[in-house]
Amino acid sequence: AEGEADCDVLVLGAGPGGYTAAFRAADLGLKTVLVERYANLGGVCLNVGCIPSKALLHAAKVIDEVDSFRDHGLKFGALELDLDQLRGWKEKVVKRLTGGLAGLAKQRKVDVVQGEGQFASAHELRVTTSDGERRIRFRHCIIAAGSRPIAPPGFDLDHPRIMDSTAALELEEVPKRLLVVGGGIIGLEMATVYQALGAKVTVAELGDRLMPGADPDMVRPLRKRIDKRYKSILLKTKASVVKTNKKSVKIRLEGPDGDSEETFDRVLVAVGRQPNSDRIGLETTGLGADERGIIAVDEFMRTRVEHIFAIGDIVGQPMLAHKASHEGKVAAEVIAGHKHAFDARTIPAVAYTDPEVAWAGVTEEQAKAEGIEYDKAVFPWAANGRSLSLERDEGITKLLFDKATGRIIGGAITGPNAGDLIAEVALAIEMGCEAEDIALTVHPHPTLSETVAMAAEAAAGTLTDLY
Ligand code: FAD
């Protein structure tokens, strides 16, 4: 029984999924309550994810670019690192965004309740706030409680020398010797930051490659660059904790060349994330999650319980902010009675390493595995004028086309700003473009975006001029 509801929509969790859903619901005239345990809105992404990591990656880039001009007529003095100031700047960036969100919530009359929410039933959330417990009854609910980092057995994230991504972003110090456990996007992004700031970085990855979602040819330029910069990159290697003390962690590394033990000043664990579905009293709603903690939803973002929706990291991979926010809009619009569903052809993925690695649609590996007949066009950035003027020539732009229809089905870009450039490929996939559509689109010169046009021209057989 619904009883008397306090709101049309209750959104649990104020990350990019939750705040987007709440704002959209309010804009559509629904009485909306947004419950968030932290004082700041924005979730993992704004507070301890996408935004602070990109701020620090920018700092890393500044250091690297200055360094790369040493032999080209621009010599600066040695780096003077003021960690407090750098941290302060990063926090300012975050505050500006989270503060902005608070303003936007207020403008829309979204009722923000700060406290830890637990379902009491399929129609009621119990919220533990600083002034006691509140019960909120809802007509509809959108679960957007996100995910948290996991650690392999033996890695105690409460130990001061063992960090998850949140602790790494706090930038307490730059360790002399840093071990990054996990060669995925988050691990490699944080490795980029700490290496630039002066740490000797070792990466240990259990699998046989870095960044397993991307095609190996697209990861190669990154590998080549970091091979020169990191102390070592160990694949097929299992790291385990031998001993910890206040100042360091002794680690056993078991890899193809045998076992060894090494001591690190800090260890960053970045081996994956787990949905928060086990911490919200989900069972009282009649819903459950699978063995990975994922809540199942349909294309309307609806769970098995008709008036309860779920979005973002808690509904599974890819765990990305732009997926969460798009799903949030769908859930809000469906609740408001609009005909809408989540039917994106592609959710682009980006590693903001240096160089960046970005991909959208099917990868070549996926196409092969699924027996898709495809044509491929690859454009090396060494033949792009803008790329050379950035003193970078290692980039690659790759496009994949369906052999039968000629339509673009996938693309990948490696190089500086690949994350920005991949948006054009995503649009092309959504719109069902053929190579010629991109080739005939006049791209500004000289830009890195021309590499997409050039790859398309190569596919269309019209490539003439370079540079
Ligand atoms: P979250 O952002 O996890 O938000 C969930 C919110 O719910 C949190 O604020 C939490 O406090 C709240 N909550 C949970 N349980 C309760 C409860 N019981 N009561 C009250 N509140 C609760 N993605 C990208 O797309 N691009 C990137 O560059 C990128 N970089 C990243 C870097 C790092 C270091 C990390 C860790 C992640 C990164 N991500 C990135 C992933 C991105 O942060 C997530 O995909 C995104 O935040 C998921 O959004 P969400 O709304 O599902 O959940």
UniProtKB/TrEMBL annotation:
<keyword id="KW-1015">Disulfide bond</keyword>
<keyword id="KW-0274">FAD</keyword>
<keyword id="KW-0450">Lipoyl</keyword>
<feature type="binding site">
    <location>
        <position position="272"/>
    </location>
    <ligand>
        <name>NAD(+)</name>
    </ligand>
</feature>
<comment type="similarity">
    <text>Belongs to the class-I pyridine nucleotide-disulfide oxidoreductase family.</text>
</comment>
<feature type="binding site">
    <location>
        <position position="205"/>
    </location>
    <ligand>
        <name>NAD(+)</name>
    </ligand>
</feature>
<feature type="binding site">
    <location>
        <begin position="182"/>
        <end position="189"/>
    </location>
    <ligand>
        <name>NAD(+)</name>
    </ligand>
</feature>
<keyword id="KW-0676">Redox-active center</keyword>
<feature type="binding site">
    <location>
        <begin position="319"/>
        <end position="322"/>
    </location>
    <ligand>
        <name>FAD</name>
    </ligand>
</feature>
<keyword id="KW-0285">Flavoprotein</keyword>
<feature type="binding site">
    <location>
        <position position="54"/>
    </location>
    <ligand>
        <name>FAD</name>
    </ligand>
</feature>
<feature type="active site" description="Proton acceptor">
    <location>
        <position position="445"/>
    </location>
</feature>
<keyword id="KW-0547">Nucleotide-binding</keyword>
<protein>
    <recommendedName>
        <fullName>Dihydrolipoyl dehydrogenase</fullName>
        <ecNumber>1.8.1.4</ecNumber>
    </recommendedName>
</protein>
<feature type="binding site">
    <location>
        <position position="117"/>
    </location>
    <ligand>
        <name>FAD</name>
    </ligand>
</feature>
<feature type="binding site">
    <location>
        <position position="313"/>
    </location>
    <ligand>
        <name>FAD</name>
    </ligand>
</feature>
<keyword id="KW-0520">NAD</keyword>
<dbReference type="GO" id="GO:0006103">
    <property type="term" value="P:2-oxoglutarate metabolic process"/>
</dbReference>
<feature type="disulfide bond" description="Redox-active">
    <location>
        <begin position="45"/>
        <end position="50"/>
    </location>
</feature>
<keyword id="KW-0560">Oxidoreductase</keyword>
<dbReference type="GO" id="GO:0004148">
    <property type="term" value="F:dihydrolipoyl dehydrogenase (NADH) activity"/>
</dbReference>
<dbReference type="GO" id="GO:0050660">
    <property type="term" value="F:flavin adenine dinucleotide binding"/>
</dbReference>
